[in-house]
Amino acid sequence: MGTTVTTGVPTTADLMEAVAAVGTAYFQDFASAAARHGLTPSQAKALKAVQEPVPMRALAGRLGCDASNVTGIVDRLESLELARREAAASDRRVKIVAITEQGEEILSLIRADMTRAHHAFGSLDDEQRIALTSLCRQVLPLLSGQ
Amino acid sequence: MGTTVTTGVPTTADLMEAVAAVGTAYFQDFASAAARHGLTPSQAKALKAVQEPVPMRALAGRLGCDASNVTGIVDRLESLELARREAAASDRRVKIVAITEQGEEILSLIRADMTRAHHAFGSLDDEQRIALTSLCRQVLPLLSGQ
DNA sequence: TATTGTTATACTCTATAACTATA
DNA sequence: TATAGTTATAGAGTATAACAATA
Fold this sequence. Notes:
The structure is a homodimer of 146-residue chains. Chain A has 146 residues and is mainly alpha-helical. Helices cover 64% and strands 8% of the residues of chain A.
């Protein structure tokens, strides 16, 4: 236990462990890149989620957190001038969050700064890229609930 | 943008997006399962990390956070009787964190409760399992810094 | 002197509940 | 009455800096 040789076909538990390890390393790289640009992981994640304008409520859904949290996160992004709230035409209750040009720039820089991820995924050849994408496509709908 | 058809070979950016989506969905399933058993994601992650006894300092390394945070996290696990601090024989400064039997039980329940992950990864056939494991093995060392 | 774990502090994230302004 | 966003509150995670005990 802990030092599994895994000679045969991996069990479901083995796969979960492997994916968890890759996911953890990926998000640490993401968090580091975001921090280098003065953002917390949640702020960077929110910025990524408002590349297309999104109502506050829908943003909460995308971030998988309560709507009350989004107020503070967007407040901080707005004070950094990385996003802004706009009025919705159809319903005066809703506010739509949109990324600013500065926000798009920071987002590009963060993505470019994920050097480990670039190194890791850049190492895959065409066949491996196709295989990985196909596996993700099969697994994702089941993992995220259809 | 956003609705990419991806007919050809996926770019590195495509791969990063796919892996991020799978990682996010996986950790949401993990967080839900942990919450059903009264644990925060950090507490569950820490519990997973102390299956073999680990000094406080090393635990901080495994969790990727500052050593000062670990005090509080282990305090809470200890108050729930899921982990305990033990004295180290060699160095009287260090405290070693070990999981309790109750902790191991909760950990098993959490793993079993990750129903979406079981469903998703359980759907893969032998060939796909081997391919996914191999891709993770290639990518992980580059992603986590050798 | 250097290291281990802790404490103090400040900020962020998070959920719950209650509020307001619309619908 | 129902919904969108906010506020108030409380608990938890996080980093920084300073500290006691030990090496």
